Amino acid sequence: APSPPPTRHHFSDPAEVEALRGKLLAWYDRCKRDLPWRALAATEPDADRRGYAVWVSEVMLQQTQVATVIDYYNRWMQKWPTLQALAQASLEEVNELWAGLGYYSRGKRLQEAAKKVVSELGGHMPRTAEALQKLLPGVGRYTAGAIASISYGQATGVVDGNVIRVLCRLRCIGADSSSPAVIDRLWDMANALVDRSRPGDFNQALMELGATVCVPKAPLCGECPVKQHCRARCRKLFGKPAPVPDVEDCGVGDCPLCPPATEPWDSSLGVTNFPRKAAKKQPRAMRTATCVLERRGCRGGPEYLIVQRPSSGLLAGLWEFPSLPLAQDLQEEKEREVLADHLQAWMGQPVAAKGLQFIGEVIHIFSHIHQTYVVYSLPLDGDVTLDPACSPSRWVTWEEFHASAVSTAMKKVL
Ligand code: SF4
């Protein structure tokens, strides 16, 4: 099919694209943050190690701030400097190191994929975005593009949240930025824009611009290296869409990239009119009763009982205090009773509901769940035999608890 004529949402002038690449790369060379994975990607001579180093960083950075990731990344690369080392790790070790970083399935999938590279691909990372996405479980289009461009110099673009924001602003894309039509167009744009001789640096520059200058709420347009190419800024300064030579005006109301007619440009928002997203779904509310069982350990200090979660689903394989999801409208007395029954199954002996001491509530927000932990405590006298037929369980000291693969929510509970 013939391509549609260029509109104000396109980069249709090759000279402009060349200028934008040059300005962005020069800014990146001057202003980029020193990050451990960048140093490794730039200096590591072994291609497989380079790909692995970038892969780990990209997985950790999904949904997590750079400042939080740095320490986890350094510890991870120290413990498992190669794919081969990671392939030999246990899930328990991976969960322990990952504890506190959130979205725990990321670590698990990374380790499973490392095993596959070692056992099925001879220990060698695939070298192109297409092969990375096809052969490595858990590696999606973005991560594949990032590894291939940064580690192997493939001229392929990337689209993440930062790139979406920058491109939508540069080209006044105001349709729902999570819609397939917009996402497809942004990938086309990223692939067309990427610098052919420095693709990895270009992609990182675009993401860095989104992370440090073209930020969501108060972008620093005055300091932006590509402000002359930004149509959102132009619109803000001149109050109407800038006339663009040689491009078609968007048809009113039927352009798939313009803001919907029902939500036109809002001059009080300026460049932050872009990008736009469909309203987020409200997180699901859940209540879970959890009980901190405490006994006196052999060295005199307190010990706590933790049990392991199932190996799939939310917080898979992590350890927690014995917990039980509750119906939303249970009375407190009833909550105690169901929790006491649940504990009885672990301990193989009757547990009196009135012995459970209510401590308080802990709220923790997962990406899609608003979780309230209703926290009880139960001090125990003497020894307790745990039923081995139930999930794995163990007694831990305070220090051991913090070194275990436990979620941030459970640390709050303790
Ligand atoms: Fe973002 Fe402003 Fe730069 Fe445009 S000029 S890309 S809105 S920081």
From TrEMBL:
GO terms for biological process: base-excision repair; mismatch repair. SUPFAM superfamilies: DNA-glycosylase, Nudix. Residues 60-212 form the HhH-GPD domain. Gene3D superfamilies: Helix-hairpin-Helix base-excision DNA repair enzymes (C-terminal), Hypothetical protein, domain 2, Nucleoside Triphosphate Pyrophosphohydrolase. This is Adenine DNA glycosylase. Belongs to the Nth/MutY family. Binds 1 [4Fe-4S] cluster. It comes from the Eukaryota. It catalyses: Hydrolyzes free adenine bases from 7,8-dihydro-8-oxoguanine:adenine mismatched double-stranded DNA, leaving an apurinic site. The keyword Metal-binding applies.
